[in-house]
Amino acid sequence: MRLEDYIKSRESLALIREAENFARGFFEREGTHGFSHVKRVLNLCMHIGKQEGADLEVLALAALLHDVARPLESKGIIEDHAREGARIAREFLEKRGYPKVGEVVHAIETHRFSKKKPPKTLEAKILSDADKLDAIGAIGVARVFMYSGEHGRSMEYSLKHFEEKILKLKDLMHTETARKMALERHRFTAKFVERIRREIEGEI
Known about the structure:
The chain is an all-alpha fold. The protein folds into 2 domains: 1-121, Hypothetical protein af1432; 135-204, Methane Monooxygenase Hydroxylase, Chain G, domain 1. It is 65% helix and 0% strand. It has 10 helices and no strands. It has helices at residues 10-24, 35-52, 56-65, 70-74, 81-95, 101-109, 122-133, 137-150, 155-164, 176-200. Helix 1 (10-24) runs parallel beside helix 3, helix 5 (81-95) packs antiparallel against helix 6 (101-109) and helix 9 (155-164) runs antiparallel to helix 10. The radius of gyration is 17 Å and the shape is globular.
């Protein structure tokens, strides 16, 4: 579905489109955490948010801005893209007089489950779920190997990453809608991991 199918206010759509163009400017190239990931997270957020009764305007802004600082972290310039991304988002939204800055900022600050900073609002929980969902299933499999290729890592390393992180994500979802989606994606991922493990071990 198009964004217009979720966001009906022309004023809200204008701000969201402005945020989209602003966020796109932070990504010099595609990759595991490129702007295509941001757009997929946005789509997941809109779907889950509609099902869960969330504030879709807050959710769309948080999704589009959640990874603006990821390229800086990838280059080693900063340590935590969630914290820096929240700062950038706050500055962007405050300049435009947006009244729900705190809600967007909280969602961005807490989307990264590895930092153990739990999301407290529904919108923050949905953003965290959507970000994790994009790491499971066919897209998740592709992203793991893209990441390994970007960093010169082996298939064995990738397999370990699946086992230590990716296959655990289904149990970390906050919303019922995301839990149902995660189960299907998890089944696909688990089946793929079992198959590639057998082939790596030399099974004919």
